[in-house]
Amino acid sequence: HVSLAIVKASAKDCGVYRCTVENEYGSDATDLLLSSEMLSGFVSREEIEVGEEIEMTPMPITKGLTDTGFWGNKLFGRIMTTELNVGDGFRRKASRVKVIYGLEPIFESGATCIVKVRNYISYGTKRDGGLVESNHDLTMQECKLQNTAREYSKIFAAETRAVEGFGPVPEIIPLHLLYRPGTNIPYATIERDLMGQFVKYAMEDKSKNLASESGSEVVQKCHTFQHWIYQWTNCNLLVTDLQGVGQKITSVQIATNSKGYQGLTGNCSSSVIEEFPDTHQCNHLCEALLLKSLKNVDSLQPHKPKGTKSPSMTRRAHSAQSSPQTQRKGHVSPLVQRKGQTSPLVPRKGLSSPQASRKNTADPNVDPKDGSAEESQEAGKHKTVEIPKTVKLR
C-alpha cells in the first residue's frame, strides 16, 4: 500500500488527487476530492492559541564537511504559531512562529522564526512508523544540505576577501532540526525569519535550466558563487534555488552527480549540474576570481592537490605563473641540462670528491678527451646519485 501525506493542509491544497498503480497485470486508479468541508474537520486551533512544546537540535559543522558527528545539544522550549502557510512554495509548507522560551542563545524569547515541513510525503503503510520515518529522513536531509551549502559559502566569502572591491557576499542561513511531539508529522526545520521582500536570485526553472530574475549585484554574486563551487568540486556539486531577503539566502537546493559527492546526495535532478555549463553566463566577478571558462568542462577537472582549500590554490598549482618551486617540477633545470653537455661539471659526476679525482688520475699527460669520455660514461651510470654531491661541493 502507498499513502500520501499533505502537510499542514489548507484551502490551496483543495482539489482532486489521483493515485495510479501500474504493473505487468495492468493499471488501476483511484481519486479523492479534498474539499474545504473536509478540511474543516482536520484543523485544530489549539496549537495556534496556546502553543506547543518542542525540541530543537542545532547542526554546527565544526570538524569539516565530511564529519558525521555534526549534531549539537538539544534545546527544549515552547513556540506558538502566529501565521499558517507563509509564502508560495510547494516543496515545503511554511508557518511563522513566535518563540516563547527555551531556545536561547540561538533564538531569543519573543523572536519570530519560520518552521518548514517537507510537503507531499509518500510512504508505505505495511509497517508502523512509515510516515514518521519518511518525515524524519527528509527533514534530516534538508538540514544537512543547507548547512553544508552554508559552509561552502563561508569558504567562498573567505576567498573573495582577497579580491579588491568584491564586497560582501550572500550568506546562507543555518537550519535547525525541530521535533514536535504533539503532531503526527513531528519533524520540521526552523530558521530565523527574514523580514523584507523575498527575492529569487538563481533558480531551477521548470525546464531544469538556471535563470535569474534581475541583474542586481546580489544576483551576480549568486551566479559567481555557483560557478566557484562548480569548479571547486570539480564539476560534481552545484547549489541552486538561491533565494531570500537581501544578502540572506535560504531554501537552497543541491545538485550532485548520480554517484553523489563526498557522501552527499543532492535533493534535485542531476541534470541541473549537467546543463550548468550551457546555462551559466560569466560576469565580471567570475573574471575577478579568475574562474575558468565553462566552455571546456574537461579543463575544470584537474588532479586537485591534497590540502587544496579553494579554486585559487588549484589555479596557482597549475597556472603558468606558478612559483619557482612548481616550475622546477614541470621544466628541465639547468643541472639536468648539463647531464647531456660537455662542461667542467661532467667529469666530476663520476667522482665523490676532488681528492678522489686526483687518485684516479694516473698521468697528467693523458688526453683530456679520452678521460672525459670515460668519466662521462661513469657519470651516465651514476648521475641520479651524484648530482646532489656536486651541488654541495660547489
Protein described:
The protein is of the alpha+beta class and 394 residues long. It is built from twelve helices and 17 strands. The chain has helices at residues 36-40, 46-50, 130-160, 217-232, 271-279, 284-288, 311-318, 324-330, 334-338, 345-348, 354-360, 368-393, and strands spanning 2-5, 15-23, 26-34, 52-57, 75-83, 92-101, 112-118, 121-124, 171-172, 176-179, 187-192, 199-204, 210-211, 237-240, 242-245, 248-250, 253-256. Strands 4-5-6-7-11-10 form a six-stranded antiparallel barrel. A five-stranded mixed β-sheet has the order 9-16-15-12-13. It has a two-stranded antiparallel ribbon with strand order 1-8. A hairpin with a 5-residue loop joins strand 12 (199-204) and strand 13. The relative contact order is 0.08.
Principal-axes shape call: globular
Structural class by sheet pairing and helices: alpha+beta
Output the strand order for the largest sheet.
Answer: 4-5-6-7-11-10
Question: How far apart lie the N and C ends?
Answer: 84 Å
Q: How many β strands by DSSP? A: 17
Radius of gyration: 32 Å
Mean pLDDT: 75
Spans of at least 5 consecutive residues with low confidence: 303-308, 312-362, 368-394
Number of helices: 12
Largest sheet: 6 strands, antiparallel, barrel
* Helix amount: 25-40%
Topology as a string of helices (H) and strands (E): EEEHHEEEEEHEEEEEHEEEEHHHHHHHH
What share of the residues does DSSP label as strand, in percent?
15-25%
